[in-house]
Design a protein that fits this description.
4 helices, globular, six-stranded antiparallel beta sheet, alpha+beta
Length: about 120
């Protein structure tokens, strides 16, 4: 198991223990949601030499290294208004998230495998 795979497996275990559902939909796209019948607050996470969190817009944000990713995911899936197009400002500020510009989003989504380790 490479470093990226181990990071996903460890995060899946921690998210599950915190009561969330986490499933790899692609080798580098971990979808996180509540475990309720109607899936709310869906986000996805990816590892590219650091964690990134995204909505389905996609609005992608870099996650600072010292942020508790489980707490961040819990804040997103617990957001009272359910799904959202961008991470709510309150959450973005609390976790010091920085939204990527479109060019950086395109680079992230087309990155080669070396950044996934």
């Amino acid at each position: 198991m490479n470093t990226g795979e181990a990071k996903y497996q460890n995060l899946i275990a921690a998210l599950t223990a915190a009561g969330m559902r986490a499933e790899l939909h692609n080798p580098d796209q971990l979808v996180v949601c509540t475990d309720e019948p109607v899936l709310t607050g869906r986000i996805w996470i990816t590892w590219r030499n650091q964690w990134f969190i995204s909505t389905w817009t996609p609005a992608i944000y870099s996650v600072p290294d010292d942020v508790d990713v489980v707490a961040l995911c819990l804040a997103c899936v617990s957001w009272e208004s359910g799904s959202f197009y961008t991470i709510p400002d309150k959450i973005a500020q609390q976790f010091r998230l920085v939204r990527l510009e479109q060019r950086a989003v395109e680079q992230l989504l087309t990155a080669d495998d070396s950044s996934k380790e």
